[in-house]
Amino acid sequence: MTRKWLSRTAVVAVIGVLAVGITACSSGGGGTTSPSAGSGTAVKGGTVTWLDVSGEFEATDPVGVYLGEEIAGFRRIVYRGLTAFPITKDKNPTPVADLATNTGTTKDKGKTWSYTLKSGLKWQDGTTITCADLQYGLSRGYDASLVAGGGGVGLTYFGDGGYNLIDPSDPSYDLSTEYTGPLTGSATAQAHFDKAASCSGNTITYHFQNAWPDFPSAAAALFSTDPYEKSFDKGTANLFTVNSDGPYKLSGTFDPQTGGTFVRNSEYKASTDTPATTRGAYPDTVKFEFVDSPETITERLIADSSSDQSAFTPLNIPSDKYSEISDAQSSRVVTSTSPYTRFLEINSNTLTDPTVRSALIEATNRADVIKAEGGSKWGTPTSTIVAGAIPGFQQNSLSKIPAAGDPAAAKKLLAGKTPSIRFAFSDTSTVIEQVAATLQQSWEAAGFKVTLVPISKSAKPGYYAQVGSDPKPFDVFFAGWAADWPSLFAVVPPILQSNPKGATFGVGFNYGFYSNKTVDGLIKQASASTDPATQQKLLNQADDTAAKDGAYVPLANQNNYFIYGSKLGGFLPDVASSYYPDLGAMYVSK
Amino acid sequence: MIAFAIRRILVGIVMLLAMVLVVFILFFAAGNPARDVCGKFCTPEKLKQVTQVYGYDQPISEQFGLFMKGLVVGRDYPVDDKYREALAKSNPDLVIHCPAPCLGYSQHDALTVNQDIVKYAPVTLSLSIYSFVLWIFFGVLIGVLAAVFKGRALDRITVGITLVVYALPTFFIGTFLLQFVAIKWRLVPYPSYVSIADGGVIGWFSSLFLPALTLALFYMAAYVRITRAFVLESLTEDYIRTARAKGLRTRVVLFKHGLRAALTPLLSMAGLDFAALLAGAVITESVFNYQGLGLLAVTANKNSDLPVLIGLVIVAGAAVILANIIVDILYAYVDPRVRLR
C-alpha cells in the first residue's frame, strides 16, 4: 500500500504528486497505452538504472520490504518465491511455479497448502536452499523487532482476518500472540510453529485456520513465504542486507539514501527458473540510484543523457511536469491504469446516520478532484474502492452518481439538515489543498458545514497515526489503497471488514471503523468458497452493500504515467509488478 | 580564563539537558511511536508486542532515565529486558551494544544513532568547511574592496548584487544550479558526493562544488555587506585618523589597524554560523541529496525516527554551545580590550 506504512496506500494518495510510488500493493495499469515490451529484441548486457527518491526504501530484508514496486523489483532480481507472477500483458494472469515444482497443492480446498522445492536451488553463497529455509523465512515475520517499516508484509494476512497459521494438532494455540519468532521464541512455541508450517523432506505444508483459496497468488506477490538462510540472519542489523537466490546479488552495500548496485549471481542457475516467463535477467548490472525528488528524476529522464538513457523510475511523472513532456519524449512515455484507488474514509463512529453519509457521497464532485490532481493522466472517476485492474472488478451502485456530484439529490437526502463535518487531509502540497477546497465547496453546496483540518507533513503523530486511531476528531479523511496481490481479497476485507473488539487503531485499512454484519458475513462466505467466480460475486456484493451504506466516498482510480530512458527496452508495467515497470523484462538496447 | 571556560561548559551542559528533556517529552508525549513501526495490519496484540520490544510501554520518565543512563554508561538493544535476555541466550551476538555516550538506536536505519551520525557527518563537515572557506575568503575580500572603493561603481555593483543574492532563498539557488547547470545545460556532471578516500582531493573538491557554492553564496552576500559596514565604521575611528596623521601608508592603516578592528565582530559571527552549519545544511543537502546530518534530520522527521532526531538535537546543540565558548575565548585574544569574567 503506501510508501511508509500506511503510506503505500494512503499517504501517497494524499501526497498526490508522489502519487504513485506507493503500494506494495499497488499500482497500475491496465492499460490505456503502449507497453513497449516485445517491441524490440531483448539483449544481454549493460546497466539498467532504477531511479527513485532517497529514503523511500524502508528495507531490503524481505520481512520489511513493503512497497509494491520494491517487492516486484526484488522478486525479479534477488528474491525468488514459491510462486511468481509471469511477465505478461495478460490482465488476469495466474501464478507460475518458481522455487516450487508447482503452484501448490491442497487437499482440503485451501486450508492446507503444500509445496515441494525444485532441486539445484542455491543461495548466493552456494548453500542449498532447503525446506527449513522456507520455515525460517516465514517464522521471522513473527518477530516484533523486525517489523520496522514494513511490518512483515503478508504475514499479517496470516495473523488476521481468518488466515491464522495454526498447529493442526493444537488449533487453539495462538501463534500470533505466543510465538515471537525464531530468535527469541520459546521451544514450545517453536514446536507449534514447526507443525503449522511443517517440513517433510523438501516439501513444506502450511496449515491455516480457514481456507485461503488464492494463497498461491499471495505467495507470488508477497515475501512472507520466501526462504531465508538462518546463518545469514543478524536480526535487526539485516534491515538493508540482501542474501540472494535470484539472478543478481548485491555488490557492496545498499543505502536507502543513495542506492546500491546488483551484479550477476554466479550461483543462480537459469535452468531452475523460467527466464522467459519470470526473469529475463538481461542487464549485467542493475543499479538503484536515489535522488532528492520525483521532479529531479523526471528532469533527468527528459534530458536523457549518458547513463540515464537506460534508466527508469517506478514513480509517476509529477503533474507539475506534465507540460514539460514534449513530442520528443512521447515514445518514452507510458500511461497505464493502476490497482490504486483514492477515496475518503468516513468515521462511522461520528457520522452515524447513513443518510447523511449517503448525502456526502452524492454531493462529492469527483471530476473536480481529478482535475485538481492533474486530469485524466492522473486518474479516472470511480464508484468503488476496487481498482479496475483487479480481476472481478465491477462498478457498484454508486456509479449512478454523476462524476460532478449531485448536490440537489444530496440536499434532498439531508432534508433541510445542515450537518457539520470535519475533514482531515495530509497537507503536503498545494495540489492537495486545492483538492480539499474543491471537496469543501461541493459539500457546502449541498448544505454541509465543513471544517478543513490540514495535518502537517511533519505532524507528530503522523497523518495516518492520527486518522487511524479511534476515537478521533475527524468525520472524513483522505485515503488510498492498492491490492497486495491482484485479488478482491486484498481489497475488500482490509478496508471493510469490522475491526476486532477493543481495537484502538484500525486493522488493515479500516480506519473509519466501519462495521456492518452483512458485509462481514459476505466476506466470511467468500473466504469459505473455493470458486473464484463465487468469491468475486460475494466480495463485490460486500462492497456494494457497504457503498450503499455510506462506508466511504469513492474518488478515483489512479493512472500511472511513466517516463524512461531512450535506450531502455522491455518497459512493461504489468500485473506481476503491480503495474509498475517490470524489471524482469527490461534490457539495454544496443 | 579557566574558570570562565568551566562556567560556560557547565551552563552549556545544563542547556543541553533542558533541550533533551523538552524534545523527549514533545516527541514521546505525541503518542505511541510503536504505531509507526507496527505495520499495516497492526492488531491490538501486535501493537502491544511491538510497544514492548521497543520499550515504549514504560513511563516516559523511565524512558528518559534510561536514555540519560545510556549517555553515561552505554546501553544494550533491543530495549525490552525480556526480549533481550531471550536473544542473549539464543543468539548473544545479535544483542546490540551501544557504547557511551549512547544516543539511542534507530530501527529505521538498523544502526545506533552514534553510528548514524558518524556515517553522515563527513558530508556535512566537508560541505561546511568548503563553503566556510569560500564565503569567508570571498565575502571578506569583496567586502573590504567595497569599503575601500566606497561610492564608486565597484561598490555600488557589489552592494546591488549582494542584495539580490541575499534575497534569494537557498533552495532557489540550489534548485537552479541543479536543474539548469547540472541537468539541462550539463555544464557539470550530476553532483554526487565523493569522499577523499574514493576520489582523491580533486574528486572530493569537484563533487562538492555546486552544493558548497549554493551554501556559500547566501553567507557570502551577508558577509560582504557586514564586512563593508564594519570596515567603513572602523575607518572613521579616531585611532585611524591618528595613524594616517602619523604618515602611515594607506595599506598599513587599512590592514593593520582598520581591518583588525573590523574583523573582531566577524569572528564571533563566523564561529556561530559555522557551528550552525555543522548541525546540517538542511536545505542544501536536501536539494542535492547529499547524505549529511541535515538530510538525516529531514529523513528522520519523515520517518518519525525519534532516537535520531533526539540525537541530532543533542549534537547540534553541543556544536553551537561549544562554538560559543570557543568564540568567546578567541574573542578575548583577538581583542585584548575584552576581559573574560
Largest sheet of chain B: 2 strands, antiparallel
Radius of gyration of CA atoms of chain B, rounded to a whole number:
25 Å
Number of helices of chain A: 16
Given as residue ranges, the uncertain stretches of chain B (5+ residues, pLDDT < 50) are: none
- CATH class of the largest domain in chain B, named Mainly Alpha
Order of helices and strands of chain B: HHHEHEEEHHHHHHHHHH
Main sheet summary of chain A: 6 strands, mixed
Helix content of chain B: over 70%
Which pair of chains forms the biggest interface, and how many residues does each contribute?
A: A-B, 65 and 54 residues
Helix/strand-derived category of chain A reads alpha+beta
What CATH calls the topology of the largest domain in chain B is MetI-like fold
Which descriptor suits the 3D outline of chain A?
Answer: globular
Textual characterization of the structure:
The complex is a heterodimer of chains A (590) and B (341). With 590 residues, chain A is an alpha+beta fold. Chain A is 25% helix and 18% strand. Chain A is built from 16 helices and 18 strands. Chain A has a 6-stranded mixed β-sheet with strand order 12-16-11-15-13-14. The relative contact order of chain A is 0.20. With 341 residues, chain B is mostly helical. Chain B has 2 domains: 2-114, no CATH class; 117-340, MetI-like fold. In chain B, 73% of the residues lie in helices and 3% in strands. In chain B, strands 1-2 form a two-stranded antiparallel ribbon. A two-stranded antiparallel ribbon of chain B has the order 3-4. In chain B, strand 3 (105-106) and strand 4 (111-112) form a beta hairpin. The relative contact order of chain B is 0.12.
Layout of helices and strands, plus pairs?
The complex is a heterodimer of chains A (590) and B (341).
Chain A: H1 6-15, E1 47-53, H2 68-77, E2 83-84, E3 96-97, E4 112-116, H3 131-139, H4 155-159, H5 175-178, H6 187-196, E5 197-200, E6 203-207, H7 215-221, E7 248-255, E8 259-264, E9 285-291, H8 294-303, E10 311-312, E11 333-346, H9 354-363, H10 366-373, E12 379-381, H11 407-414, E13 420-427, H12 430-446, E14 449-456, H13 463-468, E15 476-482, H14 492-496, H15 517-528, H16 532-548, E16 552-563, E17 568-569, E18 587-588
Parallel strand pairs in A: 1-9, 1-10, 13-14, 13-15
Antiparallel strand pairs in A: 2-3, 4-6, 5-6, 7-8, 8-9, 11-15, 11-16, 12-16, 17-18
Helix pairs in contact in A: 9-11, 10-12, 11-12, 15-16
Chain B: H1 2-28, H2 44-53, H3 60-73, E1 75-77, H4 81-90, E2 96-98, E3 105-106, E4 111-112, H5 113-148, H6 153-167, H7 170-184, H8 196-207, H9 209-234, H10 238-245, H11 250-278, H12 282-288, H13 293-302, H14 306-334
Antiparallel strand pairs in B: 1-2, 3-4
Helix pairs in contact in B: 1-14, 5-6, 5-9, 5-11, 5-14, 6-9, 7-9, 7-12, 9-11, 10-11, 11-14, 12-13, 13-14
